Model the fold of this input.
Amino acid sequence: MDLLFYAGYHAKDQNLIDIATTHAHTVLRTIVRPDWSTFHVCNLDPKTGKVKYQQTHQGYSDNSTWSRGQAWAILGFTQTYMWTKDPTFLQAARHLSEYFLCRLLEEPRERPYVPLWDFDAPANGETEPPRDTSAGMIAANGLLLLHQALGTESVYLQNALRIAEDTLAHSLSPQTGSFYLDRNGKILALGSKYDSILTNATANNNEHALIRYSDHGLVYADYYFLEFGNRLMRLGIL
Done:
């Protein structure tokens, strides 16, 4: 949606803006539950627009809350509000954020602001469910944007910073990457161990997934970690 809004406003194309706005309203109607948790996937009848079924693909179960999906919703609705100034989207972003933050602290655990991959995933004996640093960093960007939208020293800024702090303490990769420029100015990497800046991401841990993998580096986590730092600098906080 953010790309559609950007293209629409910069190209002065109202059709793109309308498509993005309509889609945002559709997501709010079909993906967001009454308690402000989210479904992962919604299948709509293409003729009537009615919901056929709601389910998960990467989360724990159809009725659970996949943390990265919740984080996408926080960021997406905040971005939509920034483009449209429609208070409906601001309200949605705030409620979605409050749900996310409450679930982080639902049970005592070390570094609680690094979210579980799914807020409803059960522990395996004494082993806690995998975390997902990508969910945390996406949510942190949404919270920081919410702080910017509200223009106050809000709890959203405090919680965004806490997510980043816990993520660095819990999941900063011990591996380092070394890079150099060759004669043609091409960037090359030395060695093959460097995977990512952040560890403890979970791409897909659904029991029915063809490939089920967790506790690894993930581009979403690294990208939004770097973008979070860029946002802090643009706001003069860092």
